[in-house]
Amino acid sequence: MSQKIIIDTDPGIDDTIAIMTALRSPELEVLGLTSIFGNATTEITTQNALRLVELEGHDSIPVARGCDVPLVMELESIASDVHGRDGMGNTNLPAPKGKTIDKSAVEFIIDTVHACPGEVTLIPVGPLTNIAVALKTDPSIANLIKKIVLMGGAVSVPGNISPVAEANIYHDAHAADIVMQASCPVVMVGLDVTEQVIMTPQFFDELFKAGNPATNLIRRILPVYQDYHDRFLGMGGSIHTHDPSAIAYLINPDLFTTKSVPVFVETERRCKGKTTADWHHQWEKRVETEVCLEVNSSGVLDLIKERLTK
Ligand code: BDR
Ligand code: CA
After folding, report:
1. Phi/psi of residue 75, each to 5°?
2. Per-residue pLDDT tens for 218-243?
3. If you measure from the C-alpha of residue 95 to the centroid of ligand 1, how many angstroms do you get, rounded to a whole number?
């Protein structure tokens, strides 16, 4: 039986690869996309989410617009140098034909979880505001959500948006700290593993040979993301595989090694967004997060390539 999922997303170049992989995976039933700020404003990422469900005829999948600003802190400047001003590598794609549903992302998450108790997995691959607001608005959903598999954080490696913080957690650290205390199972697919999974120019050459709508779109939007990885990290055309790794985890968790540990999120000043694993249980008691620490990177890459090229 396929897993029912909601992808909470800020598309976003790697979000696009993740969503395309999910939509092409029979193990997953995508119940909806919910949008969030991060790689661009919520206005822009919502339009991109609509474009993505339309690309290969999945336009019956609802798209619900998410929160515009973080829970407590100010919205920080959007990283247009990473994903482009339009979140899609400055490609100025045509406007989507469809519209968002009438419900907000938070309402959609709450209603869907109640409609399928114990069956829905949330996949946040952007800042965690929608998920935190949903948990605050209706705390009863925490016991009805099957699992949250989030892309974000780093416990054993440096950050990417700051020396200590990963971008999704940084953009709404208060929301992330709420999610790390949720009573449902939470899996963290963070930089500890996503930076070990590297898509190289050779990987993309093989991917692009498929010439289908998904790979053609990825080919178009990718250069800005490659440039960022090259400027910032000297990766010469390769990129880290952030959001698609969360999808790979869902399809085949055996590709990952995890450890259960309480995770705390800093919300102030220079350490804002830092995720700390309390390995020795020295801080106050908190539910544990399943943190991914090792990954079979060729297994993840093969899986993604197989889905995107078939
Ligand atoms: C995360 O930040 C965004 O730029 C990516 O889409 C990914 O979700 C990686 O830190
Ligand atoms: Ca993302």
Report:
1. -70, 120
2. 999 999 999 999 999 999 999 999 99
3. 24
185: tokens are 């199972």
pLDDT single digits (tens) 44-74: 999 999 999 999 999 999 999 999 999 999 8
Nearest to 24 by CA among 47, 45, 2, 1: 2
Tokens for 67, please give them: 């929160």
Which mutation among 199, 242, 249 tests ligand 1's pocket best, with the greatest number of atoms within 8 A of CB?
242
Q: Using the 8-state DSSP alphabet, how is residue 90 labeled? A: T
**Domain edges within the chain:** 3-309
Does 10 participate in catalysis according to the annotation?
yes
Distance CA 38, CA 209 (A): 31
15 Cβ closer than 6 Å to some ligand 1 atom: yes
Q: Are 301 and 199 in contact (CB under 8 A)?
A: yes
Torsion over CA: 119, 123, 129, 130 (sign)? negative
The class that CATH gives domain 3-309 is alpha beta
Residue 214 CA, ligand 2 centroid: distance in Å: 17
Active-site position among 8, 10, 86, 243: 10
Closest among 10, 14, 11 to 238, alpha carbons compared? 14
Distance between CA 22 and CA 86 in Å, rounded?
22
127 lines ligand 1 (CB under 6 A): no
pTM of the model: 0.98
**Tell me: the pLDDT tens digits for 161-205?**
999 999 999 999 999 999 999 999 999 999 999 999 999 999 999
Q: Let me know: does 274 contact 235? Beta carbons within 8 Å.
A: no
Side-chain-side CA neighbours of residue 282 (13 Å): 5
User: What confidence score (pLDDT) does residue 77 get?
Assistant: 74
